[in-house]
Amino acid sequence: MIADTLSELETLLQTVPERFSRLTPEAAARPRAPGKWSRLQILGHLCDSAVNNLTRFVHGAAPSQEPLAIRPYDQNAWVAAQRYDDAPVDEVLALWLALNRSVVRVAKGLPADRLAHRCRLANGTVVTLEWLVTDYLDHLNHHLRQIFDGDETN
Hints:
It comes from Cohnella nanjingensis. By secondary structure, this protein is mostly helical.
């Protein structure tokens, strides 16, 4: 299962930059609805997600007490602090690509026994590190559908 997840992530590394680059700067910067993030801010949020999950995967790779505590983060505060709405599209896209290359590299290096490592979510639910990797891809796909839903060029 983890191999399929990582294969899909690698495919996204090949396809997302080209698809996002087809967006006009105006389309990338325009909020999808009043009070909602723009496509560029969603991509920025995916960078923040990659940072947080990469940290989780690295901690999960190291021997530690179980379960590993998974700390949540305030996604709106992160997007605001990063000021993605003021950042050049190519900069945010390059950051997304670099972070996700690291996610794939770290996740590929996780031995089977570490994939079974237990992690406790903020709500108390206990999951495995492998579940976190799969959930990362699910979250990524959810937001990519938001970015690419509809006309990509206007």
